[in-house]
Amino acid sequence: MKQVHGTTDLAPQPTISRFLSALTCDDVLHLNRLILTLALDYIRTNHIDTVMLDVDSTHCDIFGHQEAASFNAHYGVTGFHPLVAYIAQLNLLLGIKQRPGNQYTSTGVKEFLAPTFALFANCRLMFS
Length: 128
Hints:
Order of helices and strands: HHHEEEEEEHE
Helix content: 25-40%
Structural class: alpha+beta
Domain Transposase DDE: 2-119
Strand order of the largest sheet: 6-5-1-7
Number of helices: 4
Distance between the termini: 25 Å
Radius of gyration: 17 Å
InterPro entries: Tnp_DDE_dom
Pfam families: DDE_Tnp_1_4
Protein name: Transposase IS4 family protein
Oligomer: single chain
């Protein structure tokens, strides 16, 4: 946000937390679609023909009891195992898919990346 607005005067953390807490599942889907659309506009405007995607899974520890968290044998802790996708050369987050901690690394990747593949159909996609 600092790069987009060119300022350090951003909303305080409590305001951002209230905003995020108020989001519904539909809101998150629309927000992800907006992020993808803005990324595509940027790529078209700057005539970028090759997009380097960085797709990873990561582990997020939890503290206390949280719904949908589960034990991950690889990390040896309970938490979440989300998928994360970036456009590597732009350091632009495309999306995050929250998953229980016991999900295998590539579970759900095809469905997660389907909107990205559809939007970037005219670009050459590479993976890092």
